[in-house]
Amino acid sequence: MEQFSECDGKARVFHPRKRVNRKTKLLLAFDENARREFLTGFHKRKLQRKKKAQEELKQQLREERKRVKQEARESFKKLIVSHRPVPELENLISKNYELETHSVSIQELSVSDLAENNNWIGINKVQYEDEKNDDGVAKEDQQKAELPGMELKTRKDVKKIIKKQATKQVQKSKAFKLKNKIERQKNKKESLKKKKKRIKTQSNSKKVRKHGKKRK
Q1: pTM above 0.70, yes or no
Q2: Where is this region: Disordered (predicted)?
């Protein structure tokens, strides 16, 4: 379809509009509850992530403690085996022979054993007096007290030492350090909240006092 304009005398061409195909249009229907939950659930999801991270941290700590306890048990077993009483050399050297009428035992005897059995004088032995320090404690006793492992007398003492070493190993682990870091941050936030609350109460009390003076 062509039309002529009076100004320039040129023909204008008008194209007819295309019909809109309404069948292919999509209608989006929003779920108001889901939309509201998504828009207002950022804090909720943050708390969920925090809870999940705390559970993972607790699991890591449990596994670390379990591993350290297992290592402590193994070291305790090795320590018990290494501290077993050694059989006397005389028992290892002695030999017994069973005969028809009697048994013969061959055993190595020392001069001190013969002297003790027969009330002899025996060999000469030198006895040294214990040199005492200023506090009156013998040097030998002091050295025994200072030697590592000499203070361990019972299994209970050994278990205490192993438990102490295990706790030190747990404290050096990454999971324990991360836990301490989270606790420090939490305590810092709580202290800041308390400080702000205290400042706010002080400022409110000052305002109340000023208003009371003005009324007078």
Answers
A1: no
A2: 49-68, 132-152, 164-216
